[in-house]
UniProtKB/TrEMBL annotation:
<keyword id="KW-0597">Phosphoprotein</keyword>
<dbReference type="GO" id="GO:0006355">
    <property type="term" value="P:regulation of DNA-templated transcription"/>
</dbReference>
<protein>
    <recommendedName>
        <fullName>DNA-binding response regulator</fullName>
    </recommendedName>
</protein>
<keyword id="KW-0805">Transcription regulation</keyword>
<keyword id="KW-0804">Transcription</keyword>
<keyword id="KW-0238">DNA-binding</keyword>
<dbReference type="Pfam" id="PF00196">
    <property type="entry name" value="GerE"/>
</dbReference>
<dbReference type="GO" id="GO:0000160">
    <property type="term" value="P:phosphorelay signal transduction system"/>
</dbReference>
<dbReference type="InterPro" id="IPR011006">
    <property type="entry name" value="CheY-like_superfamily"/>
</dbReference>
<dbReference type="InterPro" id="IPR001789">
    <property type="entry name" value="Sig_transdc_resp-reg_receiver"/>
</dbReference>
<feature type="modified residue" description="4-aspartylphosphate">
    <location>
        <position position="59"/>
    </location>
</feature>
<feature type="domain" description="Response regulatory">
    <location>
        <begin position="6"/>
        <end position="124"/>
    </location>
</feature>
<dbReference type="InterPro" id="IPR000792">
    <property type="entry name" value="Tscrpt_reg_LuxR_C"/>
</dbReference>
<dbReference type="InterPro" id="IPR058245">
    <property type="entry name" value="NreC/VraR/RcsB-like_REC"/>
</dbReference>
<dbReference type="InterPro" id="IPR016032">
    <property type="entry name" value="Sig_transdc_resp-reg_C-effctor"/>
</dbReference>
<dbReference type="GO" id="GO:0003677">
    <property type="term" value="F:DNA binding"/>
</dbReference>
<dbReference type="InterPro" id="IPR036388">
    <property type="entry name" value="WH-like_DNA-bd_sf"/>
</dbReference>
Length: 208
């Protein structure tokens, strides 16, 4: 297939990021492949790269946040970016939460090289790609599914680390009132009564 210029990887596991970069280079679809394990370095690259065609392979699980929280910033900086999630998540709730944000593709970290090839070819053809092992999640429904926003998941991670409302507000540059409102809303979505129950729910469903 024709070369697709530039691909970039963001995964906080350096070994995986570099290994995946080598795989993409061997694949031969891209002129240049860059890999990053830290979000700030990734965004420095994105700012300097400009609004050019770019494939972004984005990990879902990132320190103190998840890839969903970065989507809007990536699209704001580069509207041509094709965003493909690469994830080790297997919980249906997590996969459905990712798909709700309509990335260009989602690929399991356990996928083979043929799945990777098909993913890139599908996205390049203008269609969204969903890893075959995730397709049943498009049909299955769970009465207990709660779709949380990237901001809600970010706040949950701070709560899980033992931060108070005031500490979480300071770290996220929100007012305590806004943090409380987010907490109340996510608890209503999950139909739980306490933040401890909310954290248990989030862990059980691999949201944090």
């Amino acid at each position: 297939m024709k070369e697709l210029t530039h691909a970039v990887i963001l995964d906080d596991h350096r070994l995986f990021a570099d290994s995946f970069a080598l795989l993409l280079q061997r694949f031969g679809a891209f002129d240049v492949v860059s890999s990053f394990s830290k979000a700030d370095e990734f965004f420095d690259f994105l700012q300097s790269f400009g609004n050019q065609k770019l494939y972004v392979f984005l990990d879902y699980y990132l320190p103190e946040t998840n890839g969903l929280s970065l989507l809007s910033d990536i699209k704001r900086i580069n509207r041509q970016a094709k965003i493909i999630f690469i994830t080790s998540a297997i919980a249906p709730n997590v996969i459905r939460n990712i798909l709700q944000y309509r990335p260009n593709g989602i690929l399991s970290k356990s996928a083979g090289i043929q799945d990777l090839v098909k993913c890139v070819e599908t996205v390049e053809g203008g269609r969204a790609y969903v890893d075959p092992q995730f397709e049943p999640f498009l049909i299955q429904r769970s009465e207990r599914t709660a779709t949380l926003t990237p901001r809600e998941i970010e706040l949950l991670k701070y709560f899980a680390q033992g931060n108070s409302i005031a500490e979480t507000a300071a770290k996220t540059f929100l007012s305590p009132h806004t943090v409380v409102a987010h907490r109340r809303k996510m608890m209503a979505k999950a139909n739980v009564q306490t933040i401890a129950q909310m954290l248990t729910y989030a862990r059980d469903n691999e949201l944090i």
